[in-house]
Specification:
heterodimer; A: mainly alpha; MetI-like fold; B: mainly alpha; 2 domains
Chain lengths: 288, 318
């Protein structure tokens, strides 16, 4: 009799824990829904065609005509530039970790530092960029913003690529080496092609992170109503456009801040879906 | 004829080996960059913070309670405590749910549930901080004001850390809720990875002697992976420590030492972000703010290095 009671109790616990876990999962999943619903329902009413096609006109920040094209273009410039620099550094580092430093102590150190860099908050990168700018006598500019974003994106991209390249089928690599290829040839001609879908996912992941980042560009890129024409111009960015407009005493301007947040969300979601789609599209060219 | 052919092939070969050697060296030099970057960032911030560190004792800066830069008073204590409060509330709200979700995904869920959950977590991680801030401003601040504060009033008010101290929804609780959602994807994905290092033989052995799944999890899986789970939580906490804009938008930004979760707070990252414009006009102000960034960096570096070392060791075991 005692035994039976014990038996029932632990099964009750099992059921209870399972239910609690399901509820936890539902809470986490529905928070995404809540966020998206809030942004869409508050952003959509004030989203107009003007917002995405015009730069701010006189009195825009008092609720008059204009748009935030300057911030959209600025963000695309900043994130593209940052991503480009990050690729130039990331791809060789990720290839080196797999091709030359497999299971080496140095590889461990590099991975450790990349993980640590990944954890450094973007406000610290921003402050670092600012400290460098004072030392070099530079002013807030597109270039400084691009460099700060490249630093933010570098560890994200490299670790993503590293994780992907690690999953490279060893047979393929060995086959190429057995035919007399050098490690470099294997890295460039076999690994990058076989792992292209994953590499692209890593690049787009970093781009998405870059375009939404505020704290690093706050100090380094500045803000302006014009679209930058040179690397030395200050540059507006979409996240900052959201932030500044929300701080406005004019309700119309705040409303447009919500719309700007919606635009940013759409861009980020688009990048996220595009990377998924591209990865599955391109994976059919890989050797299975 | 034969000789020239073999000479050509020798040339090609040596060209290719040279290319390989050159590439391996160039790539190696690039790998030095991330390692060096950590040092460079720390040194650069230290150099810029040097003026204030030589003017005041470190303990005066860290324990000082008054922040009046134009009178030369730089007390970081309210900001440090504000950071700790917001982070603690965020972590406490987030961790139980996150660990339960990871256990569910790793141990119970069907493959189909996992394929649905993964993109949801990816999207949560992809949403920019400023969008979290807008969400906090539009949903969480009113929620704290209209629902949570009245709930506490008259019932839990006697407990000091739950007493409603000010009439707006802005404050530590709102910041903590936003942070809890922001750090969830990170904690869940790392914990999930850690849980999947436990070998199925162990699970089967436990289930085979008649244990329920939850008993197996509690007695086998969790004890085995506890260091990794703690590392995941520490990673989440360090992410919360440095989160700037989303917290800044909902936390109130009043430099006062908080005593309740309904108090406003002014965390360090918000201090840095809010004052970058004027910091060049007051003496030592820029040094103080970059010093704040240095404090933040050092704490986060310690957290990150420890947890990454634990995780590197655990995840290798696979």
């Amino acid at each position: 009799m005692m035994k039976k009671k014990h038996f029932e109790r632990r099964h009750l616990v099992e059921l209870l824990m399972k239910t609690i876990m399901r509820i936890a999962l539902i809470i986490v999943a529905s928070s995404l829904g809540l966020i998206l619903w809030t942004i869409i329902s508050r952003g959509l009413p004030s989203l107009t065609w003007d917002m995405v096609t015009q730069i701010p006109k006189g009195g825009y920040y008092m609720g008059k005509e204009g748009g935030i094209l300057n911030a959209i273009i600025g963000s695309i410039y900043l994130a593209s530039g940052g991503t480009l620099i990050a690729i130039i550094l990331s791809l060789p580092i990720a290839l080196y970790l797999q091709a030359y430093a497999q299971d080496s102590k140095w590889g461990d150190y590099v991975r450790l530092s990349l993980d640590v860099l990944w954890g450094i908050p973007s406000i610290v990168y921003g402050a670092f960029g600012f400290a460098l700018m004072i030392m070099l006598g530079m002013r807030a500019s597109l270039l400084a913003g691009i460099i700060a974003l490249a630093l933010v994106e570098l560890p994200i991209m490299t670790r993503a690529m590293d994780e992907v390249i690690r999953r490279m089928p060893k047979d393929l690599e060995h086959a190429a080496l057995a035919l007399g290829s050098t490690k470099f040839e294997v890295a460039v001609r076999v690994v990058t092609r076989q792992m292209l879908p994953g590499i692209i996912t890593g690049v787009l992941l970093a781009f998405g992170r870059g375009i939404g980042d505020v704290a690093s560009v706050l100090f380094t890129a500045g803000y302006t109503d014009r679209i930058p024409t040179s690397l030395m111009n200050p540059t507006a960015s979409l996240p900052l456009a959201v932030f500044f407009q929300l701080g406005s005493p004019y309700p119309e301007v705040r409303e447009r801040g919500y719309a700007a947040a919606l635009i940013l969300t759409i861009i980020v979601l688009f990048v996220s879906f595009a990377s998924r789609w591209l990865a599955s599209r391109l994976s059919k060219y890989s050797v299975k | 004829m034969n000789q020239t052919l073999s000479k050509i092939s020798e040339d090609i070969k040596s060209h290719r080996t040279k290319q390989d050697l050159f590439a391996s060296r160039t790539f190696f030099v690039l790998t030095v960059f991330p390692v060096l970057l950590i040092v460079i960032i720390t040194v650069a911030l230290y150099l810029r913070a040097q003026p204030i560190l030589s003017e005041y004792a470190l303990t005066d800066l860290l324990y000082g309670e008054i922040w009046k830069p134009n009178q030369g008073l730089f007390g970081f204590r309210p900001f440090i405590l504000g950071t700790i409060w917001v982070t603690a509330v965020g972590v406490i709200l987030s961790v139980p749910a996150c660990i339960l979700v990871s256990i569910y995904l790793a141990e119970y869920a069907h493959a189909r549930t996992r394929t649905i959950a993964k993109p949801i977590l990816d999207l949560l991680a992809a949403i920019p901080p400023v969008v979290y801030g807008v969400w906090g401003l539009l949903s969480i601040v009113p929620f704290v004001d209209d629902v949570l504060a009245p709930l506490s009033k008259g019932r839990l008010d006697s407990i000091p850390i739950l007493s409603v101290t000010q009439p707006t929804g802005f404050g530590i609780l709102a910041g903590g809720i936003v942070l809890a959602v922001m750090i969830a994807p990170l904690i869940i994905s790392v914990t999930f990875e850690v849980l999947s290092t436990v070998s199925n033989d162990l699970r089967h052995a436990s289930l085979g002697v008649g244990a329920t799944q939850w008993q197996t999890i509690r007695n086998i899986v969790i004890p085995q992976t506890l260091p990794g789970i703690i590392a995941a939580v520490v990673l989440g906490a360090s992410r919360a420590l440095g989160e700037t804009i989303a917290v800044l938008m909902v936390v109130g930004n009043v430099p006062k030492i908080p005593t309740s979760i309904f108090d406003t707070a002014y965390p360090l990252p918000a201090l840095i972000a809010n004052n970058y414009g004027e910091m060049m006009s007051i003496p030592l102000y820029d040094a103080a703010l970059l010093g704040a960034a240095l404090v933040l960096l050092v704490v986060i570096l310690i957290f990150n290095i420890l947890s990454t070392l634990v995780l590197q060791r655990m995840l290798r075991r696979k």
